[in-house]
Design brief:
Blueprint: H1 7-23, E1 31-32, H2 40-46, E2 50-51, H3 57-69
Parallel strand pairs: 1-2
Length: about 90
């Protein structure tokens, strides 16, 4: 069965879809948390939103938990065993 819509109905549907897309928009925030202080320049050049210097594995885990408790969905990636707890 094929449905036909008036121009007014199409416009209303289009507006509804736009509202839903805006409501579902994903906001990404990048935080860099290296174990040393030497990466601050790299973070700045890369346009990272937040930087935590000399972050221990426990500090990384605490940061992630704090963000999650605030209702945020968190994805973490690391390059070493010191990132495993997070």
């Amino acid at each position: 069965m094929t449905r036909t819509y008036t121009l007014k109905q199409r416009a209303a549907r289009r507006d509804e879809v736009r509202r839903r897309i805006i409501d579902a928009a994903v906001v990404l925030k990048q935080t860099m948390a290296p174990g040393d202080f030497s990466m601050a320049d790299v973070a700045e050049q890369a346009g990272v939103d937040d930087y935590i210097a000399e972050a221990t594995p426990e500090a990384k885990l605490a940061y992630i938990r704090k963000e999650q408790e605030g209702g945020k969905l968190v994805a973490m990636m690391g390059d070493g065993t010191n990132d495993a707890p997070a």
